[in-house]
Design a protein that fits this description.
The protein has 507 residues and is α+β, with helices and mostly antiparallel strands. The chain folds into 2 domains: 271 residues, Butyryl-CoA Dehydrogenase, subunit A, domain 2 (Beta Barrel), CATH 2.40.110; 166 residues, Butyryl-CoA Dehydrogenase, subunit A, domain 3 (Up-down Bundle), CATH 1.20.140. Helices cover 45% and strands 14% of the residues. Helix 4 crosses helix 8, helix 8 runs parallel beside helix 10 and helix 13 runs parallel beside helix 14. It is globular. The termini are far apart. Flavin-adenine dinucleotide binds next to strand 5, strand 7 and helix 14.
């Protein structure tokens, strides 16, 4: 990333890995990580992402994943604006193809932030004097296929305080120099940030910034991960080298470490700034960019893939337990399949019935996006409930590690006592360790927290849905519908229509 030129070809996996070796300041387990591509907490996740980049070039997947944009750049289909339902459907296939490579368990793959970046050039005018930055960043993003994380939430230091009273913690501009703005403060949670190229930093859409006092906090910019003022303080990693794939098949390769991003007097070059001390633009960009329409599209596709995986796991788990012929168990698997169909169906509606965005861009309709956003946050709770009631305690009927299978005294006992209805002991243990990694390990628990929260707190999700429906006149139309019903009658009887006034006449 040094020099930050905008080469015009998508990164390969190896180029992506090389882009991470830039001296970034990542802290974990009391040490500053020398190289995230070799550190056990990040190496396998970085390799999982590198596989996505290689797929952009592989003959078998290149055409499904990539297309040429308005600038003549070959890019991921979701990294460029879609201009028709057909292009949205093609973008969905590209998102799903990448998602399947992580079995739905990589949430913040590079296509997540494409939901904002894809329209950045088309919306460049919105950013006023910084419009050239918007165009340049789009071109670098689409041309290279950059991997961006995004941080918009302030740390939970004291939620009842006004933002401008939290200057010592929340991200704000300290000063301007000829080179750029100097920013300090922290944001949560920068998912995947340790293995990304840059962070997109902005206030959350609902941020209450008071004119005259909130301007320092009204900034939107990109922070490159090699910026000496950027520090990532990571949560406990779930990938550990001492755990065999057999014991941790998901957490050992798909852990997107969530970090607190700290900006410590970081100099952000002017060319990386989109909004500077502008309250209206600092949150207004959300509506203008179509981010909510598009990120919920990516999320819905990704969750559909994850639910396909969960439906397969549940079906195989019940067969291994010999419960698959029971009516209630079949109903549980059927419910899970239906949940997948619901989310996938919503993404079909989002693609096939779009709304116009800026400059002829086709955006998934906001009504469907708000439905995906709320439904997605509820689905995973039900998934857990179904797994835990349908499989009972069986996910824990596994020996402690793959090494137990090699123990000469244990192996005959394991083969006898751990076999499944339709599987050998080894296959049954392998299956249930995968199930437990999906729902029960620390990695599985983090996914539960992720699905519930990544799109905002539950109240905000619903408040936004109401705000959008009100803004578009839907709530007024629903109220008018009720008024129409009430206008059919008054205290004297029916005011219109064919109905009898005396209920007795009706019988
Ligand atoms: C695994 C994971 C990954 C994440 N990744 C990212 C990421 O990559 N980028 C990113 O930006 N964020 C990320 N987040 C953060 C996520 O967006 C937030 O957790 C989410 O928006 C909820 O916000 P919060 O955690 O601050 O909870 P809060 O907003 O504090 O909500 C907690 C409760 O307090 C109530 N509450 C809070 N404030 C108010 C108020 N002012 N008035 C009334 N009630 C209030 C809420 O209604 C809710 O019931 C991630 C979170 C998780 C768990």
């Amino acid at each position: 990333m040094s020099g930050h030129a905008a080469p015009r070809s998508l990164m390969t996996g190896e180029e992506y890995l090389e882009s991470l070796r830039d001296g970034r300041a990542v802290y974990v387990d009391g040490e500053r990580v020398k190289d995230v591509t070799t550190h056990p907490a990040f190496a396998n996740s970085a390799l999982s992402v590198a596989r996505l980049y290689d797929a952009l070039h592989a003959p078998a997947t290149r055409d499904v994943l990539t297309a040429t944009d308005d600038f003549g750049l070959r890019t991921h289909r979701f990294f460029k604006p879609s201009r028709s339902a057909g292009e949205l459907l093609a973008a969905r296939e590209a998102i799903a193809t990448w998602s399947r490579m992580g079995y739905g368990f990589l949430g913040r793959t590079p296509d997540y932030k494409a939901a904002f970046m894809s329209g950045l050039a088309a919306n460049a005018d919105f950013y006023g004097e910084f419009a050239p930055n918007a165009t340049r960043w789009y071109q670098e993003f689409a041309g290279r296929g950059l991997y961006l994380n995004h941080v918009i939430i302030n740390p939970p230091t004291d939620r009842k305080q006004a933002i401008h009273d939290m200057r010592d913690v929340f991200v704000h501009v300290e000063k301007e120099t000829d080179e750029g703005i100097v920013v300090s403060g922290a944001k949560m949670l920068a998912t995947g940030s340790a293995i990304t190229n840059a962070s997109f930093v902005a206030p959350v859409a609902s941020a209450a910034l008071t004119p005259g006092r909130g301007e320092d906090f009204a900034v939107v910019f990109f922070a490159r991960m090699d910026n000496p003022g950027v520090k990532l303080i990571c949560r406990t990693p779930y990938a550990r080298r001492d755990r065999a794939p057999f014991d941790a098949p998901l957490s050992s390769r798909f852990d997107e470490n969530d970090a607190v991003l700290v900006l410590d007097r970081a100099l952000i070059p002017w060319e990386d700034v989109l909004v500077h001390r502008d309250i209206q633009r600092s949150t207004g960009f959300y509506a203008r960019s179509g981010f909510a329409n598009l990120y919920n599209f990516q999320s819905g596709v990704r969750l559909s893939v994850k639910l396909e995986m969960m439906a397969g796991l549940l079906s195989l788990g019940t067969k291994a337990n010999g419960t698959d012929a029971f009516r209630g168990v079949q109903a549980a698997v059927g419910e899970l399949v239906t949940m997948r169909n619901m989310v996938w169906g919503l993404t079909t509606a989002m693609a096939m019935d779009p709304e116009p965005g800026t400059d002829g861009i086709a955006l998934p309709k906001l009504e469907y996006a708000s439905a995906v956003r709320m439904y997605n946050a509820q689905v995973w709770d039900r998934v857990h409930e179904i797994f835990e009631t349908t499989l009972g305690g069986s996910p824990l009927v596994v020996p402690s590690s793959a090494r137990d299978l090699d123990h000469p005294e244990l192996r005959p006992l394991i083969d006898r006592f751990y076999r499944g209805s339709d599987t050998t002991a080894q296959d049954r243990i392998k299956l249930f360790k995968l199930i437990w990694d999906a729902i029960g390990t620390e990695f599985g628990g983090r996914h539960e927290l992720y699905e519930r929260n990544y799109s905002g707190n539950g109240e905000q999700v619903r408040l936004d849905a109401l705000k959008w429906a009100t803004g578009r006149g839907a709530v007024a139309a629903y109220e008018e519908f009720v008024h129409t019903c009430m206008a059919d009658y008054d205290t004297t009887g029916w005011t219109r229509g064919p109905w009898h006034t005396d209920p007795a006449d009706a019988w």
